[in-house]
Structure formats: C-alpha cells, structure tokens
C-alpha cells in the first residue's frame, strides 16, 4: 500500500512540536501545542484510510476498492469540530485568566509580559476589568492584598493614560502650531 | 414493544432539555422545572431498561436502521443499565441540591443561565458513554461530558477556578487526544471501530500490536479514571468547583473512565495479558491515594484523594480477572458513586454551617447541628468499610475473589486493600474528631460563625437558625436521600449482588455481546479466530504452491 511520506513527516513534526509546546507553562503555547497535536492526530486517522482514491460518491460502474475510505474522513470531521470547541473555550479561559491575574506566576504568559512591558495603555484593548470579589472561600487577608496590588496597578495604568493624553494633546498642539506656521 | 428501543431517549431527552433551558436562560423557574422533569423522565426510561435487562443478555439498538458494524450501535446490558440508573439518581439529587443552594443564596454562587443547560449536557454525555457500542461513539460521549465539565469547573471564573480549570482542561484534552490516537491505530490495524467487531478482529493481530493498542486505551481511560500515576490532576482541580459540581464530578466522571476500562478488559481484550500491570496500578492507586488523603486539612481535598484511592478498589476487582472480582466491581461502582456524591454534598452543608471546609477551622458541629453529624457519620463509616454497610460488603467480595484467585498479586492487593480500608477510616474519623467532636474554641483557627454558634447554644440550648447562612430543606432532602440510598444498599445487597453476578456473567462472555450486536447467534470470538487462521493457512499454501511452480 503506497503511503504519502510527506504527510507522515508533517505529522511527525507536528507531534514533536506539539509535545514540546504543551510542556510550556504559558497557556497560549499550550493552546498552540494542543492545536498542533489535534491536527497531527487527524492526519494519523487520515492515514488509517490508506492511499487516496476516488471521492466516495457511489457509482455502480466503479470498483469499490477504488474509493477513498470515507469513515476516517467522518471521524476527522467530528474531531475537528470538537477541537474547534475546545480551542474556543481555552481562548476564553486564557483571556479570563489574563484579566484576573496579570502578575500570577503560574499564568506567566510571555505575550502578556510583552504587553505589560510596553506600558502604552490603550483604553479599548487593555481596559482593566473590575476586581472580581466573587471568590468566597479564599481568606480575607490574601484577598485584601490582591485588591491592594490591583488598585495600585490600576492607578498606575490610569496615571499612564493621563500622561499619554497630555502628550497627545501636546503633540497635536505642536502639529497645529507647525501647520499654522507653515500656513 | 421492545423496551430497549427507548435507550436513545435517555440521551435525546437531555439534549432537548438542554436546548430548551438554554433558550429560557432568563426564566430561572422554567429552567429548574424543565431540568427536573427531564432528569425524572430519563430516570424512568432507565429504570425500564434496568428491569428489561434484569435477566437477559445484552440488547442492542441500531440507530437509523444501519446494520452493525456500519451503523451506530447502542448496547444495553446489566452494567450499562445499572450505571445509567445510578448516575441519573445521583444527578437528580445534586440538581435539587444545587437549586436549593441557589435559592438560599441571594448572591448566585452558581450562575443559573449556564448551569442548567451545561449540567444536562454533562448527563447526556455520561449516558452516551454508557450506551456506546463503538469506540468513536464512546469518544464523542467523553467529549460531550468533558466539554460540559470544563464549563462547570470554571463557572464564575474567579482566579482559583481558572487556575484549577486550566489544569483540568489541559489534562483532559491530552487524554482525549491519546484516546483519539488509539482509535486511529485501532482503525488502521483492524478497519473497524465497532466494539463487537473489534472483539473478534483484535485477537487476530500480532501480539505486539495488541499490547500497544491495549496500553494506549488503558492510558487514555486511566487518566479519566484517575488511577495512580495519572491521577495527579484530580485533587488539584475538583475541590475548587462549587460543592454540587464537585459532588457530581466525583461521583460520575471518574466512574465513566472505570466503565471504559471494564469494557476494554472484558470485551476488547478479554484474554488479558496486562492483569499484573493492572494489579500493580491498583496497589499504588490505593496506597498513594490514601497517603495523600491523610496529609490534607481541607475536607474536599481529602475526599478527592480518598476518591482516587478507592478507584484502586475497582481496578483491583478488574485485575483479578475472575467471576467474583468482576461481580464485586459492578456492585462497588454503584456503592461508590452514591456514597462519594453523598459525602461531598454533606461537606457542602458543613461548609455552609461552619464557614469553611478546613479541619483546622471547624469544630463543635456535633452540638451545633446534630443532624448534620448523623448525615456525615453514616456515609463516612460506609466508605470506611464498617459492617453492615455496603462498603464492607464490597470489600468482602473483593477479598473473597482474591483468595479464590490465589496468586501473589491477588494476595498483595488484598493486603493493601485492607490496610487502605483502615487508613480511610482513620482519615474520615479525624474529620469527625475535629469538625464534630471537639468544641469550636479548641480549633486551631476557628471561624467566627462557629464560635458565635457555640456561645448561642451554651446560652439557651438552641441555635437561632436565622442568624446563620441558610441551609434550606431543598438542600438537606437530597443529601438525606443519597445517604439513605447508600445505607439501603445493604438491605438490597442480595438482589443487587445477584444482578451484578448476571452482569459479570455477560461481561465475561463477550460472545453474547457480539451475537447481540450482529444479531447472529452463530458468531463467536473463537470461531472468528479459527476462520481467520484457516484463511491465513490457505493463503500461505497458495503462495507456496505458486513459488514451487515458479
């Protein structure tokens, strides 16, 4: 039975990279790793159908062995849908955990650090979410500490926003002045 | 009428109810009513299935009229019928409890609009997994219940739940991937995913391939069932969820994994080969789990470790690979689902009354709420294996089975099993001593509400209920119900053991399963093996004759 070597190589690389990625602590990488692993598995199931054949649309004149096996395709389709749902959910979790605990060591996301290091505060993209007090069983002192740290971060962010607004106002004024001079 | 044709209803009704409750997300009362009615209806269907399967062999439904192995087959035998009934019973109790908690709290700890549809989907997934007659349908069942459980475990999405949920989601997704990969391998090597068909075809594969497939399936199911080296995710993620969610997870989800392991061992690979591995896994699960439980101060975490440890008892029964061993596993599954869920609900009540689920902060609950002490005490000694409760009966069955088998593995498991039973009792008795027996003021860090309650009692002998966090009757009734069912298992132990015996008869004779699925009484595993060997021989001979003629 002839088998497509390039697909097998792709599958192997995807498995390797996927396993490497899910061992990381950052959630986005884990997500990427899981996506790669799922797709590698899909390719593996695809291989189970053997060599590619005709599309499985029934016709009396065609020899049954000439068709592609349709079952693995159905399985892959199902698993694609499932992995889509899982990816969407994980993205939601990642976003939520980033909102909740930007400074958390476990959720120490490289991308998030980059965003935090930039310092530019975009009110639409980076709005600080309301502090979540719905937790009922953590003890009072940690909650207070968390809240203090949170308010500090928020104050800093607001300060930066103010600074940025001032700068923006200055620069527009400069530009207007320059344009005025030119005119 | 053929009652088994009702089997798909136990999935479809739940799906439909989930859709309706989702649409009605703003009408809490309607949601509650629909969820309740749907589960009661499903329970009724499943009881009918249980009765019809009481003395018969496996029965099948071919969905859409497609014949096996081409269509989707659903199989009802004693094991799946029993699991369906038990799971619906406890989920009904937990649903009522969750509703009660929600009515009692004004702050909506469980957001209603998502809770009911997700909960119903979880049950639909569980039912699907128990009824699945092919590996891929089993996978889909797992995925439905896992997706629902991801939502339930991260509900309210505060920091600890997100962190715990992340671990849970990633581990579950990886285990599903392993399962899917195994399905790919199984299909590549046999060309089928129908379990009855596989039962015949897997035995014709080379031994190495058989071991590989067998191990991959066991690892995938082992993560879900939380057996020892694969169990580390469980105590991390379960205890942070809301009490009713933890209760239903602890009761059901790991048991679906155990169910899949039973099917793998009895139907797909009945000739065994890995029972020594399974016995070692059972011993380690039993022992490491209970050591973890002894180290905890948080009762929910302790119960999660006990849950892992007691999965070991079920693996013990499976590893014995004997009639009595399997009978007891079926009995033990029913017992453990009910007791474990009941205990988690009781701990939820303790947490409400005491303000904490940590043994260092609890005390004096015996005087403050005596009925709660009774509610804790009965399932606790039941789980610990004190006669005459069902936990004791299950363990006696396993010990008898071990002695019957008589190998060193069996004796090893028996020894560790008895030790773990004692240690379980120790862990549970410690909670009893700390949370109920000692006065609250002797606790390391007593909660304010307990101290107040104790003074209240000392002053006039009664507790002013309205001063404390409410425990509504809607929460107490299902808890009492589960504790009572757990205790009643002793009374019905005779018929239940007889039933489990029939179940294990059917499980240990996979030919019955194959014949039911293919609706052909002449098929047997041995027959298929002989036929394929004969075919191989003729092929070899024809090759040889070709070579010699050349």
TrEMBL record, chain A:
Biased composition (Basic and acidic residues): 155-183
Keyword hit for Isomerase: no
Protein location: Cell membrane
GO cellular component, as recorded: plasma membrane
Listed transmembrane segments: 6-23, 30-54, 74-95
Keywords in alphabetical order: Cell membrane, Membrane, Transmembrane, Transmembrane helix
Domain of life of the organism encoding this protein: Bacteria
Listed Acidic residues bias regions: 127-138
Entry keyword Oxidoreductase: no
Gene3D superfamilies: 1.10.287.3510
InterPro entries referenced in this protein's UniProt entry, alphabetically: CPA3_antiporter_subunitC, NUOK/Mnh_C1-like
Spans annotated as Disordered: 127-183
Membrane topology: Multi-pass membrane protein
Family: Belongs to the CPA3 antiporters (TC 2.A.63) subunit C family.
The protein's name: Na(+)/H(+) antiporter subunit C
Natural source organism: Rothia aerolata
Automatic annotation (TrEMBL), chain B:
Listed Pfam families: Proton_antipo_M
GO MF term (any one): NADH dehydrogenase (ubiquinone) activity
Stored InterPro entries: CPA3_Na-H_Antiporter_D (IPR050586), NADH_UbQ_OxRdtase (IPR003918), ND/Mrp_TM (IPR001750)
Positions of transmembrane segments: 6-24, 33-54, 79-98, 110-130, 136-155, 167-193, 213-234, 241-262, 274-295, 302-319, 331-350, 371-390, 410-432, 475-497
Record's keyword annotation contains Cell membrane: yes
Ranges in a coiled coil: none
Keyword Metal-binding appears in the UniProt entry: no
Main location: membrane
Membrane topology: Multi-pass membrane protein
Any one annotated GO CC term: plasma membrane
Gene Ontology terms describing biological process: ATP synthesis coupled electron transport
NADH:quinone oxidoreductase/Mrp antiporter transmembrane domain sequence ranges: 132-417
Subcellular location: Cell membrane; Membrane
UniProt KW keywords: Cell membrane, Membrane, Transmembrane, Transmembrane helix
Similarity section: Belongs to the CPA3 antiporters (TC 2.A.63) subunit D family.
PANTHER family recorded: NA(+)_H(+) ANTIPORTER SUBUNIT D1 (PTHR42703:SF1), NADH DEHYDROGENASE (PTHR42703)
Protein name as it appears in the record: Cation antiporter NADH dehydrogenase subunit
């Amino acid at each position: 039975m002839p088998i497509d070597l390039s697909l097998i190589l792709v599958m192997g690389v995807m498995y390797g990279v996927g396993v490497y990625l899910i061992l990381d602590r950052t959630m986005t990488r884990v997500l990427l790793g899981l996506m790669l692993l799922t797709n590698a598995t899909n390719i593996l199931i695809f291989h189970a159908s053997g060599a590619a054949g005709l599309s499985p649309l029934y016709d009396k004149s065609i020899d049954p062995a000439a068709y592609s096996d349709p079952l693995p395709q159905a399985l892959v389709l199902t698993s694609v849908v499932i992995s889509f749902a899982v990816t969407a959910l994980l993205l939601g979790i990642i976003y939520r955990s980033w909102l909740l605990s930007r400074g958390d060591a476990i959720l120490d996301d490289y991308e998030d650090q980059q965003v935090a290091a930039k310092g530019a505060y975009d009110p639409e993209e980076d709005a600080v979410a309301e502090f979540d007090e719905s937790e009922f069983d953590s003890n009072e002192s940690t909650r207070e500490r968390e809240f203090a740290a949170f308010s500090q971060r928020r104050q800093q962010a607001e300060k930066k926003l103010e600074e940025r607004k001032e700068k923006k106002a200055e620069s527009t004024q400069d530009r207007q002045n320059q344009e005025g001079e030119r005119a | 009428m053929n009652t088994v044709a009702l089997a798909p209803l136990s999935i479809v009704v739940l799906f439909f109810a989930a859709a309706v409750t989702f649409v009605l997300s703003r009408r809490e009362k309607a949601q509650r009513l629909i969820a309740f009615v749907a589960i009661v209806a499903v329970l009724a269907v499943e009881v009918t299935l249980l009765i019809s399967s009481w003395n018969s062999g496996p029965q099948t439904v071919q969905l859409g009229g497609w014949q096996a192995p081409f269509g989707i087959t659903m199989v009802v035998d004693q094991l799946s019928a029993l699991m369906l009934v038990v799971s619906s019973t406890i989920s009904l109790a937990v649903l009522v409890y969750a509703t009660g908690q929600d009515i009692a709290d004004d702050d909506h700890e469980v957001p209603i609009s998502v809770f009911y549809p997700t909960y119903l989907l979880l049950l639909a997934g569980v039912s699907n997994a128990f009824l699945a007659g092919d590996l891929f349908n089993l996978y889909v069942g797992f995925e439905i219940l896992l997706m629902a459980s991801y939502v339930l475990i991260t509900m309210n999405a505060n920091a600890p739940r997100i962190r715990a949920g992340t671990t849970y989601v990633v581990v579950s997704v990886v285990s599903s991937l392993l399962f899917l990969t195994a399905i790919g391998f199984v299909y590549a090597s046999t060309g089928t995913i129908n379990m009855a068909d596989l039962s015949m075809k897997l035995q014709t594969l080379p031994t190495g391939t058989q071991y590989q497939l067998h191990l991959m399936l066991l690892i995938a199911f082992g993560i879900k069932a939380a057996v020892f080296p694969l169990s580390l995710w469980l105590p991390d993620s379960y205890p942070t969820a809301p009490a009713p969610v933890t209760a239903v997870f602890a009761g059901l989800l790991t048991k679906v994994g155990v169910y899949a392991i039973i099917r793998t061992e009895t139907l797909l690979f009945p000739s065994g080969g890995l029972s020594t591995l399974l016995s070692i896994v059972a011993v380690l699960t039993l022992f490491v789990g209970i050591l973890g439980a002894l180290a905890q101060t948080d009762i929910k975490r302790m119960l999660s470790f006990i849950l892992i440890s007691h999965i070991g008892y079920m693996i013990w029964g499976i590893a014995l690979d004997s009639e009595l061993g399997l009978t007891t596993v079926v009995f033990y599954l029913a017992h453990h689902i009910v007791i474990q869920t009941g205990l988690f609900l009781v701990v939820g009540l303790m947490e409400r009354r005491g303000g904490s689920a940590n043994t260092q902060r609890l005390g004096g609950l015996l005087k403050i709420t005596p009925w709660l002490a009774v509610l804790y005490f009965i399932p606790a000694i039941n789980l610990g294996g004190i006669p005459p409760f069902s936990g004791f009966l299950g363990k006696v069955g396993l010990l008898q089975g071990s002695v019957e088998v008589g190998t060193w593995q069996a004796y090893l498991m028996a020894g560790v099993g008895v030790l773990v039973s004692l240690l379980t009792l120790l862990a549970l008795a410690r909670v009893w001593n700390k949370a109920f027996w000692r006065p609250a003021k002797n606790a390391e860090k007593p909660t304010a509400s307990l101290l107040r309650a104790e003074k209240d009692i000392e002053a006039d002998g009664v507790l002013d209920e309205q001063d404390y966090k409410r425990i509504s009757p809607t929460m107490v009734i299902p808890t009492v119900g589960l504790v009572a069912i757990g205790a009643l298992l002793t009374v019905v132990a005779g018929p239940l053991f007889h039933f489990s015996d029939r179940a294990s008869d059917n499980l240990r004779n996979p030919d019955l399963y194959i014949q039911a699925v293919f609706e052909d009484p002449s098929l047997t595993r041995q027959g298929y093996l002989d036929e394929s060997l004969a075919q191989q021989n003729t092929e070899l001979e024809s090759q040889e004759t070709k070579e010699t003629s050349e």
